[in-house]
Amino acid sequence: MENTATYLGLIPLLPLAGALVTGLLHMLTCRRKPLPELFYGVVGCIGPLLAFFFALVLFFHLKGMPAEERFLSHIPYTWFAVGDLRVDMGFLADPLSSLMLLFVTFIGSLIHIYSIGYMAGDENFGKFFSYLNLFLGSMLILVLGNGPVVMFVGWEGVGLCSYLLISFYSKERENVLAGNKAFIVNRIGDFGFVLGVSLLFWAIGAGGFDYLALQANAGSLTPGVGIAVCLLLFLGACGKSAQIPLYVWLPDAMAGPTPVSALIHAATMVTAGVYMVARFSFLYVQFPVAGSVVAWVGILTALLAAIFGLFQRDIKKILAYSTVSQLGYMFAGVGVAAYSAGIFHVFTHAFFKALLFLGAGAVIYALHHQQDIWKMGGLKEKMPKTYWTMLIGALALAGCPPLSGFFSKDEILFSALAHGHIGIWLVGVVVAALTAYYTFRMIFVVFHGQPRDQHAWEQAKDAPAVMTWPLLILAFGAFFVGFLNLPGLFGGGLRVSHWLAPSLVESHPHVGLGVELLAVFAGVAAFVVGITLAYRKFGKGATEPEYRGFARFAYHKFYVDELYNALFVQPYKAFGGVISRILEPKVTDLPVRLSTWLYRWAGNAFKVLQVGYVRVYALYMVIGLSLMSLILSQSIN
Amino acid sequence: MHDFLTILPLLIIVFGAVVLMLLAAFEKVSLTTAAGISMGFFAAAFAAQLLAGCGPQRLVFEEIFNGMLVAGNFTMVAALVIFACGFFSTTSSHTYFQVNRFDGLEFYSLLLFAAAGMVLLTMAAELITAFIALEVMSLAIYVLVGYDRNRVTATEALLKYLMLGAFAGAFFAMGTALLYGAAGSTHFTAIATVAASEAGSPLLLGGAFLLFVALLFKVAAFPFHAWVIDVYDGAAAPVTGFMATALKAAVFTLFANILAIHGALHQGWVEILFYLAVFTMFAGNLIAIGQNSLKRMLAASGIVHTGYLLVGLVAISADTFTGAVIGYYLAAYAAGTLGIFAALSYLGGEGEKRATFADFRGLARVRPYSAAAITIFLLSMAGIPPTAGFMGKFYIITSAIEAGQIALAVLAVVSSILSMWYYLRLIVAMYFQPAEETFATTGSPWAGVGTIALAVSVFAIGLYPIIV
Lengths: 637, 468
What we know:
The complex is a heterodimer.
Chain A: E1 3-4, H1 10-29, H2 37-63, E2 72-82, E3 85-93, H3 95-118, H4 125-144, H5 148-166, H6 173-204, H7 211-217, H8 223-240, H9 249-252, H10 258-267, H11 272-279, H12 281-284, H13 288-309, H14 315-335, H15 339-366, H16 379-382, H17 384-398, H18 404-418, H19 422-447, H20 454-459, H21 465-480, H22 495-500, H23 513-538, H24 550-555, H25 560-609, H26 614-635
Parallel strand pairs in A: 1-2
Antiparallel strand pairs in A: 2-3
Helix pairs in contact in A: 1-2, 1-4, 2-3, 2-4, 3-4, 3-10, 3-15, 3-21, 4-5, 5-6, 5-10, 6-8, 8-11, 8-13, 10-15, 11-15, 13-14, 13-19, 14-15, 14-18, 14-19, 15-17, 15-18, 15-21, 17-19, 17-21, 18-19, 18-23, 19-23
Chain B: H1 2-6, H2 8-26, H3 31-54, E1 61-64, E2 69-72, H4 73-99, H5 106-123, H6 127-145, H7 152-183, H8 188-197, H9 202-218, H10 226-234, H11 237-260, H12 263-289, H13 294-315, H14 324-347, H15 363-366, H16 368-382, H17 388-402, H18 406-432, H19 445-463
Antiparallel strand pairs in B: 1-2
């Protein structure tokens, strides 16, 4: 059943090679005369573009095979083998990973191209492209890995790159702190992930530790262990994909350059958690309890983040909370065992969210790093290309039929309803209305009404072509990719779901037309309500409101950061302080210091013997000789 | 003919020495040319040795010249190490003489003679040959140590070394006499056979003892180590580097060859070697931490490395002896030590004015590449992975454990930890303290190439595994 395809190894290798080349060249030349930016730009884009090409080749290769045999693998070498654990550095391509590959490399390539324009003039231009390439390579390893261990390599790799890129403007302390926060919060998730994988290995790892073997052996898991594994893995997903309680890092991560926010913190890396849950669908399907936890955490995160999104003033933070919220939808989807719906939302979200971020980037670029929406306004005339493309993105995000976001969101909500999760469905509909509201609040405040900063407004203009073309392409995608998975209600054939079917273990409940129609109408109604409210409040220009009561509470994000700080960070620091101030110097250091003192003393004592007189040295020889003869004489007889 | 082919590398070296001496007599060549010729002969000998070892007739262990010499894989490795030491010492010397102008053409000739004596020593299979080789080597080294005859410390070092060396040489001659008296032969195999049948014969025991004392003196094992600090300090840096590496390699090869001839012979000495190894390691460490001069510190650390090699000698087993562990350690140690002395030759400046830890403060700020190279060499000597020094120590300690010497293995590890003190001290001085001077030097371009080659070989040897 398994076929090999050697070029699989090339897909992650190409961006990694690009990272190495640009990184080394940057290191060697940054002190003196840096290489021209165009050089880095071109070299940095080659890897992603070639990877995209191979992803296409792979897609058509798989497409040419019978549906049930769509597995390609390539194992370049055995990574390590310890006891029972034999881990190959292996790659597995199936419909799920090939779909992920396609949009990751496609959007990745576009964002690389966009960055040539956005990062122009930055002194660390080469470094940026090196990191970006490294990120893409790691993401591809994550997606293509044939087992949890290889996935973990990519998982950590993208985490590292995320950290490096959030702190990219490292001259400001705030950015560095944001990077630290992201990294540390992710470590908590990784802790869960590692524990989950270890537990999985302990339970059923003896029969092989790649996905196919695990899937074959998953039946022998006991419920206790299985649920524990599922929840621990989900903890990892919560870290990477910013879900309650670990979502706090993602809004801060907006400190990085905007292309990074688009690529890593919206379109690709943050969806790794969803991908992972879908990868382990064979586990989650067995334990619906774990799935319900996933779904509820997801939908509550969606609600919470949507509420926060209503009151943000930083354009990137609005989008960041919207990302958290949409990720919540995806988890709700995979949680109710509608894996293909969740992955489909990952797919469409990648397009419209990358588009919105890049559009926001173009606005920020035009206004010289102004991110406060209450300092914008009326940019419609000045930046028409940005406006129209962003409008498409916003409509898609808000779930306007027939744009992509409508279909994927509808699919999730319908699945929740069909599987009998009425509560999740209800919350989901409310979140959909909130989404439409905050998205169009942003659009109206930024692009409509009167300019709030006349000087900046006069200078604003559309970004150069290298930045607008990616916007146009993404807008096209955001508009149309939804049609790929048209449900039967609209005469489509759910082609994405069928494509994904061999990789996933899911059931499609059969429900009546009424339920399907109910879901669609609720979605459309939510969209209409949200956008109408936003129009009435912000459509004709608005001034910055004073927040009071609940709004004030939400504006401060329910004081969750402060709560975490008081509950975890400060006690932890205090504990560390006790150790560093009392335990270490007064208790554990004592023997250490004593031994160094003893060593030094002995050394000084020994130095005395080194007198420098040759006669004394001869005497040492004679004494030594005599002593040795004495010992030897014992052995005669 | 076959016998002569086997010692071809040795002949090349001797020929080179004679050629250089003749050229020196007529003063026909420049110093740079002489250094080039010396490097050429070392390289040719290295290549010849490599071909002899890797050619179709691979030597395992055979007696040549009617049993006067032996040649095997172990002696081949030792010869390769010695030739490489000679080669890199020549490059260091060439750099060193750019600022310290007491050079002469004979210097390189003596270097070749010393190397010839060393290679002959590794191949010696009987006492008279060993004695001659030892003296050929020692005489050349004596002159090299005192080559800068206008400097007091050099002449002092020469005098000390000569007097104590003569003392040790006397032991060797005396031991030879006793052994011949006991066994009726000067061949190691014959002596070993007698030793196996007459265990505990006083004549044999005393003779072997005196012989070993001479060898222990040459490798500076406790309690015959005291000279090494002053002599290494007094000699010119490239000469010190050559002594510390090539000489030790030669003597240890002979030592191991003798001990491995017969299990009974080795068994009789295990206990005393055990104590010597322990004392040598710890005495070396204790001396090293008190030093402020780098050369003195390195001399003391050389004592410690002698201790590790003694651990290796304790652990050898006559039945399965291949010399792999000791040969590997010698090569790994040589790469690190040669590197650090090459750096000292280059950076030491006129009259070796930069000699102490304090003089190298802040080197990393001014000369990052030099500091990085020195760091690599120091880490290798300290035994930090992934360098050759780590692997060498790993093999030594593993072999000790396999030989059942757990206590010795533990003590070797402890000693290795203690040695961090003085190796890291230099790294700290180079990296964490501000620079006080510009470290201006006028070195030859060969020095850079040689240093890079050594730094690479530190990693390359570390990656090249042996099967113990």
